[in-house]
């Protein structure tokens, strides 16, 4: 059952990431990785909510944790795409943009995780 939960969650997360990417790229086609940034920040929000609210406050069981945290958030977040896009920026001579991408992505994800964590312990 655990593997099925991860499989279903991962598939749903990947489909959501694909949909968000298509939607954002239909409006924005710049060199900035908006779709990846948005997916990673949103995945961080979901992960924090799943862990800090549902698991700690509501007793989320192991199967749901595997489906939502390991599966969905794992399929929805895009570290490999983030790394690839950052490398492409470096390769194309856009070092400042690449470093800004890393800086903004990491800090924004840590910031939203911190905010949700602080709200959950109140």
Walk me through what this model shows.
There is one protein chain. With 122 residues, this protein is an all-alpha fold. The chain has one domain (2-120). The chain contains five helices and no strands. The chain has helices spanning 2-27, 34-58, 62-76, 79-91, 95-120. α4 packs antiparallel against α5. It is globular and about 50 Å long. 24% of the residues are buried.
Summarize this, please?
The protein has 122 residues and is an all-alpha fold. It contains 5 helices and no strands.
What is the strand and helix layout of this fold?
Elements: H1 2-27, H2 34-58, H3 62-76, H4 79-91, H5 95-120
Helix pairs in contact: 1-2, 1-3, 2-3, 2-5, 4-5
